[in-house]
Amino acid sequence: MLNLPNLKSALRNHPRWFRLYDTFRRSALRLLPAPDYRQLHDLAAVPAALPRVCFQRPAVSVEGWLSDDEATALYVLARMTAGSSMEIGAWLGRSTICLARGLIDGGNPTSLLSCELAPTPENFRETKPGWVGFFYPANHLVSMGDCPVW
Questions:
Q1: What is the per-residue pLDDT for 8?
Q2: Which entry of 51, 67, 121, 122 is 20 to 30 Å from 40 by CA?
Q3: Cα–chain-centroid distance for residue 99?
Q4: 66 Cβ neighbours under 8 A, 6+ residues apart
Q5: Of 74, 130, 139, which is closest to residue 100 (Cα–Cα)?
Q6: CA 127/CA 106 separation, integer angstroms
Q7: Which residues, other chains included, contact 109 with Cβ-Cβ below 8 Å and sequence gap of 6+?
Q8: Whose CA is closest to 29, among 58, 7, 49, 55?
Q9: What pTM, to 2 d.p., does this model score?
């Protein structure tokens, strides 16, 4: 078993080294055999399996806030499920793609229902300079998530 130290926290203040190390670590871990999804019965076992999971990720043209780690986790959880799935707040569809691929690859013949919250411009407002937040309902005081304006 390849055991690479997780130096992410030590390299956080060095973005170039952080990206280089993270790329190397992911590449090295993907050389290991894919996890046996039939053995993943417990959610506690999922984080250890994530670095070795390979699947067709959403195309770069499908925008969204979903990170690679979150996409992989959704894929694995969908592969583990035996019943129908429902996603609320699909945004632009990156998470829906990951869930659908997990259900298909897992041989799950059930359905996936995905619905959007129908946001309007009133649901978005500046949270700090250069950042915009999503507020649902629109008059809520706490943002459900923030991202850079760009």
A1: 65
A2: 67
A3: 10
A4: 58, 74, 94, 95, 98
A5: 74
A6: 40
A7: none
A8: 49
A9: 0.63
Domain map of the chain by residue range? 1-32, 37-116, 122-150
- Virtual CA dihedral for 30, 93, 63, 89, nearest 10 degrees? -110
| Total residues found in the chain within this entry | 150
Q: How many angstroms separate the CA atoms of 57 and 96, rounded?
A: 11
d(CA 58, CA 108): 20
The closest alpha carbon to 100, from 111, 89, 92, 91, belongs to 111
Q: Provide the token pair at 134.
A: 């999503």
pLDDT in tens, 97-146: 999 999 998 887 788 888 877 788 898 999 999 999 888 888 989 888 88
Of 26-30, 80-84, 105-109, minimum mean pLDDT range: 26-30
Which sign does the torsion angle of CA 75, 77, 81, 83 carry? negative
Local confidence band at 6 (pLDDT 50, 70, 90 cut-offs): low
